Amino acid sequence: MPNNKTIIILLTAALLGACSSSNKTTSKISDINPQAVLSEDESVEFGKVYINATKEKILGNSAKAIKLYQQALSIDQSSAAAHYELGLLYQQTEDLTAAYEEFKWAHQIDPSNYWYTISYANILEVQGLKAESIEVYSQLVEQFPSKIELRYELAKLLLEQNKVGKSIDQLNSIEKEIGVSEDISFLKQRIYLSNNNVDAAAKEIENLITAFPNSLNYYGLLSEIYMNNGEEKKAMEVYRRMKEIAPNNYQVQFSIAQFQRSKGNKEEYLSNISSAFANPEMNIDSKIKYLLSSYQVNSNNKTQLIEGIKLCRIISETHPKNAKSHALLADFLYFNNQSEEAKLSYFKTIALDSSRFPVWNQLLIILSETNDQKNLLNFGKRAVNLFPNQPTVHLLYGLALFQEESFDEALGIFQAGKEVVIDNQALKSQLYSSIGDVHHAKRNHIASDEAYEKALELDPNNVYVLNNYSYYLSLRKQDLEKAKSMSKKSNTLAPNQSSFQDTYAWILYQLEEYEEANVWIDKALELDQNSGVLLEHKGDILFRLGKQIEAVEYWQKASEKGDASDLIEKKITEQKLYE
User: Fold this and answer.
1) Contact assessment for residue 33 and residue 76, using Cβ atoms and an 8 Å cutoff
2) pLDDT tens across 481-499, in order?
């Protein structure tokens, strides 16, 4: 709540201002109100209303204050102070037309008052009356020649009206008084550039450099002026001067690097950008922002990727304790198929900052892709504990457990994962598919079928479920027509997959469609001749076609590969088919 003593002082001062205003402007009063002199009662009444209006204004009651100032002006229209205060309130409430009228009256009643006049000049500018505003500002400059800011505002207004010469004159007059200043030089530079006078614009920045020789920003601006206007040799000369002043300054190195890159000077560019990135004073976020804007992590351009990796290494070496530096390097390495190195950089990232889920997720993907079971189990468990609401970590960790034949634990992880999936039917389908795989491994066929059915309900085009489910049905010799339909669909959705073609061949075999089965197993073998399973299946199909000698030859090939069934040696020895 405001201090009452302060309010009384403010009100008294405001009232004195109002009274002195009316006393000074008797020649103007007749233009507004024929009654030039107030009676004693009117003066008292005006004072009371004015004080109440000012009190409400101080208390923040704008609407009440406006009404009271209007009431005061109905008593004495010649009060410049009341017009001015009312104008301020209108301006505050964004009624600019009304504010313009009140500031205009205040200025006409008391043109010698600085605040009335400056408010009038400003509202003229806001209202788009630029010429009138210039006229009033010109009067202010004459009245208050020591106020430099008035000349600066006048110069800007003159520039907006394309009165370039007069604008420059005002700025030069300021410069004579205060010397070279950034605001004045920048404005003059802008004026000269707008008129394509590059030399004059450059001279203004050279003046700043002379006045402030250690400010590299001015050198940067000067080089930019030259670059933007096609004067590259002059720009390069400025860069050379910058490097002489601050050879180890990262801003200088970075600017030169950008210039050299624009000219296609690869060696000079890499030398300077490497120096800038090796400077710990350059903010790591600035480095990363530039790197990501200039190099695509997943680029097909190998040269660019290698350059990006080189710069990432510099950043990670310069900022070894910042997790972001190692994460960035890891991303680039991964997309350059350097998975093992990427893995190490992700390990460093997590050791410094274990809070970022995307890093963990990418690491688990790499561990899965490189079959690093030991680390996948270790980091997968940590990831599930850190991010229990992220289904992808459940899937990846669960797959690692499944590979280890920790079926019950894997099942629990998959079950928990499917419960936290939000708006991702494909991912939820994959988790149900994995649940089906676990139940199949445990020979819980009813439960596995239910899980596969749920997976296909969520994603009817999940090719892995279509393939695996149909293959397991064929092994059990159940629902073979359904299995055939699913397998055919998987081959349509994902052609040229040897495992999918083998599944279809084996289902045809179980349906005793041996000729067609032989066609499909040959398709599979065209893509993969190193699978003992495929070779054994080929032998079985040939045996059913009555080609016993050829069948044995394929069984022998399957045996050599080492991943055939337990019955393979018996088939070879006895030259009979065992299933």
Assistant:
1) yes
2) 999 999 999 999 999 999 9
